Amino acid sequence: MPYCRIETNVAADKVTPQMAEELGKLVAKTTGKPLSYCAGAIVPGVPMSFGGDAATPCAQAVLMSIGCLGGDLNKRHSKAIADFTNKTLGVAPDRMYIQFVDAAGSNVGFNGNTF
Predict the structure, then answer these.
(1) What SS3 string covers the chain?
(2) Could you confirm whether 2 is annotated as catalytic?
(3) Which CATH superfamily is domain 2-54+69-106 in?
């Protein structure tokens, strides 16, 4: 149910499947949800700019979860995602935005049903 998607202008040849696996593990750790329900995706090569600069690495991310979001929790998630993105993709923390979506279980589908 927790899902993190990072879109970036970093080239596809710099992104590995292992990075997406690590992102899923990070989501499990910061939300406290079982890894078996967590998903991570990194979408490279997206034409984007930040502050009018499209040449320097930048990103935008969305973290969706049923609960485990809000206030101080989002600060923890933000730091973890920014650190991960900086370490793996070379995107400086001041070159990305992160959106947090606290979804109702009835609005999240899984296995042919909803939560």
Answers:
(1) CCEEEEEECCCHHHCCHHHHHHHHHHHHHHHCCCHHHCEEEEECCCCCCECCECCCCCEEEEEEECCCCCHHHHHHHHHHHHHHHHHHHCCCHHHEEEEEEECCHHHCEECCEEC
(2) yes
(3) Macrophage Migration Inhibitory Factor (3.30.429.10)
